[in-house]
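ESCALATION

Customer reports they have been waiting on this structure for their group meeting. Please prioritize. Original submission:
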Amino acid sequence: MYLDWLRENFRKKKDQGATQKDLADALGLSITQASRLLSGKRHLMASELPILSAYFGEPLPTMRTSKEQVPASVIKLRAIAAPGVWRERGNTVMLGTELIGALRNPNYRDYEQFAVKIEGTKKFAICIPPDPDRVETGQVVLVERERDDMVETTIRVVRIRGGALGTSLYPESHDQNEVFHSLADTKLVGRVIGFFEEV
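Update from on-call: job pushed to the front of the queue and completed.
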């Protein structure tokens, strides 16, 4: 949706004499990056959307949800996943005010989709709400563990060992004390349906 909007408005700008260099300068990108953006080989970042709207003098395309009006290809950032990092609950999950420029997965259009930043990387996991009755080996899930008033949020892979359902860290951890926790001492927060990396 945004790519079509970008191309259409850039075509209008070109008709007025604008170049890819002008677009690149407006976004603080190289000409190569601007070219990749127009070709769809580079994702738009959420931070670039208001810049483009101002540059084109056009509002962003939106879609109506039951709660608010949200740009159609923007997913809210709800958590930061960091194994072994314990945060106060208010400082971890539901960071819903932040947005990233990841595309919604059309295969899960009927589900709420949200993003989780993987701390220490440029990667985000794209998640949907979990279905506790359909947890299977190999699924990648977002989980929370609580200790006192603190919460640890991590991405894990579901494993079944000796008939017991548990999880192991994703990506794999060298800290064997952190690798395996049963779902009994964790709370399922989301099911990972894909990954998105900032360019």
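Sent to customer with the following note: The CA atoms of residues 116 and 127 lie 7 Å apart.
Escalation resolved.
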